[in-house]
Design a protein that fits this description.
The chain has 4 helices and 9 strands; from the N terminus they run E-H-H-E-E-E-E-H-E-E-E-E-H. The chain is of the alpha+beta class. It has one domain: SMI1/KNR4-like, CATH 3.40.1580.10. Strand 6 and strand 7 form a beta hairpin.
Length: about 130
């Protein structure tokens, strides 16, 4: 189906925040993801359901914000992922259960709090185009 709109978008206060975070944490985001963050920082996708590679259906709650003062921001979780996965798993969104959608080797995966990782899409663009309404 793909994205119809983004709700509750928060203006990115520092346009260099993404580049600064990449340098600070030694991670790289895809160009498609960076563009999406610039346009939809902290937003909620509509529609927001996706089918994972394991056949399960899941939601996408919010795109993590690059504004440090926003409640659900990248800075609260990025250090864990950098320490645990050496920058190979980079969170960018959360679901309603506190799990994180991440870029990993060019693919989008859902990282569960128990450490399980399930593929969601072959790329960030495919991820956005796979969203649908329940």
């Amino acid at each position: 189906m793909a994205i119809e709109r983004w709700a509750r978008v928060k203006t990115l206060k520092n346009t260099e925040a993404i580049v600064e975070a990449e340098k600070k944490y030694g991670v790289t985001l895809s160009a498609a993801l960076k563009n999406c963050i610039v346009e939809n920082n902290g937003g909620r996708p509509v529609p927001n359901a996706i089918k994972l590679a394991n056949g399960e259906e899941n939601d996408v709650k919010i795109l993590l914000s690059y504004n440090a003062e926003d409640i659900e921001n990248i800075y609260k979780v990025i250090s864990y992922f950098v320490n645990e996965y050496k920058g190979s798993v980079v969170p960018f969104a959360s679901d309603s259960e506190g799990n994180y959608y991440c870029e990993m080797n060019g693919k989008v995966v859902l990282w569960y709090q128990d450490g399980d990782i399930v593929q969601a899409a072959n790329s960030f663009s495919e991820f956005l185009n796979s969203l649908y309404s329940i």
